Amino acid sequence: MRIPRFYDPQPLSEGDDIELSDDVVQHVSRALRMKPGEYIILFNGDGFEYKTKLTHVEKRTVHAHIQSLITVHTESPLQISIGQCISRGERMDYAVQKSTEMGAQAISPLFSERCEVKLPKERQAKRISHWTQIAVSACEQSGRVSPPEITAPKQLKEWLLLQDAELKLVLHHHSEQPLQEMERPNSVALLIGPEGGLTEEEVELAVRHGFKPLTLGPRVMRTETAPVAALTLLNYLWGDLS
User: Fold this and answer.
1) Could you give the angle at the alpha carbon of 138 between the alpha carbons of 55 and 238, nearest 5°?
2) Quick one: which of 144, 11, 143 has its CA closest to 80?
3) What residues form DSSP beta bridges with 192?
């Protein structure tokens, strides 16, 4: 049976005796009703897994002993940062979840001209926390050891200025150069529009900032489907799916 995996942000080291964080305790003690002597896998974003034995389990407190450090290879060698224009409700949740499963290292929620979501500053911290938890859960499920960074929401123009990836792409229905003919990069910045798409002016702005238009075929994809298709293609060509 597969050993349960959990993200615990505290420092982890082989041989340590630790008290698990509240979120992990909820799963271990209340949901799974695990017992002392059983094993879990922990990760904290440092790139490793830690095989951990439960030593004391109560409803609100769980102690454990870290038995061994495990080196894993589940992070893509291709560094991909996504600028995802914010969509409504579960669509944005889906985009964050699947982008995490497919290996994105950073996800930036963006406001664009056709973005229909209004997110006042006083609500942004709560949404970032929500999306971060979705990403963490996706890492626990998929075997990743480094959750992607979920940045604070930005205006599209601001995000474009911050990008310094070797290859910068904007999803658009017109592409002059096939992706497979481009030089192999170590890092990619990928801009994905909202439900109504990017305006021609926004695409032109991205191009002026060094982005190349990329089409994923003749069919129009939903905003939450586009990152899955794009990340699959990028990792197939230059990442760990080849």
Assistant:
1) 125
2) 144
3) 84
Q: What's the per-residue H, E or C state across the chain?
A: CCCCEEECCCCCCCCCEEECCHHHHHHHHHHCCCCCCCEEEEECCCCEEEEEEEEEECCCCEEEEEEEEEECCCCCCCEEEEEEECCCCHHHHHHHHHHHHCCCCEEEEEECCCCCCCCCHHHHHHHHHHHHHHHHHHHHHHCCCCCCEECCCEEHHHHHHHCCCCEEEEECCCCCCCHHHCCCCCEEEEEECCCCCCCHHHHHHHHHCCCEEECCCCCCCCCCCHHHHHHHHHHHHHCCCC
Strands 17-19, 62-71: parallel, antiparallel or unpaired by DSSP? Answer: antiparallel
Instruction: Scan for tokens 């002993």, then name that residue.
Output: 65
pLDDT in tens, 140-179: 999 999 999 999 999 999 999 999 999 999 998 777 678 8
Over residues 11-35, the pLDDT tens digits come to: 999 999 999 999 999 999 999 999 9
Instruction: Count the Cβ atoms, other than its own, within 10 Å of residue 228.
Output: 17
Q: Rounded to 5 degrees, what are φ and ψ at 10? A: -75, 160
Residue 47's alpha-carbon distances to 22, 28, 42, 145, in angstroms, are: 22, 22, 11, 5
Write out the two tokens for 56.
């004391």
CB contact set of 41 (below 8 Å; sequence gap of 6+): 3, 4, 5, 6, 49, 50, 51, 52, 70
With 0-12 / 13-18 / 19 or more C-beta atoms within 10 angstroms meaning exposed / middle / buried, residue 156 is buried
Q: What is the pTM of this model?
A: 0.92
